[in-house]
């Protein structure tokens, strides 16, 4: 495979993963899939990150995201248990 094809696939996967986060966060449902609203919210977020409060926003948002991923991982591990494990 040519190097440009590999890079294109990496970029495509990256974009799909980012879109997945928008869906996972519930943004699509909450906005009724309104692309202008989603884009506006992302622009607001970018403004916030580039403001004097940017570092605080980064810390808060990163913490909230890490916590959500951890809860999801725990829930996923619980869902993968067999019935025998639940009885033990």
What does this protein structure show overall?
By secondary structure, the protein is mainly alpha-helical. Helix content is 83%, strand content 0%. The longest helix has 26 residues, at 54-79. 0% of the residues are buried.
Features:
88 residues; mainly alpha; 5 helices; 83% helix; 0% strand
Topology (SSEs and partners):
Elements: H1 3-24, H2 27-31, H3 35-49, H4 54-79, H5 83-87
Helix content: over 70%
SSE run: HHHHH
Shape label: extended
On the 0 to 100 scale, the average pLDDT is 92
Biggest sheet overview: none
**Secondary structure tally, helices:** 5
Structural class: mainly alpha
Separation, N- and C-terminal Cα atoms: 50 Å
| Number of E strands | 0
Question: What does the radius of gyration come to?
Answer: 18 Å
Proportion of strand residues: under 5%
């Amino acid at each position: 495979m040519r190097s440009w094809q590999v890079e294109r696939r990496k970029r495509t996967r990256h974009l799909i993963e980012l879109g997945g986060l928008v869906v996972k966060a519930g943004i699509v449902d909450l906005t009724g899939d309104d692309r202008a609203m989603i884009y506006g919210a992302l622009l607001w977020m970018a403004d916030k990150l580039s403001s004097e409060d940017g570092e605080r926003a980064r810390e808060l948002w990163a913490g909230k995201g890490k916590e959500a991923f951890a809860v999801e991982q725990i829930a996923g591990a619980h869902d993968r248990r067999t019935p025998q494990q639940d009885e033990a």
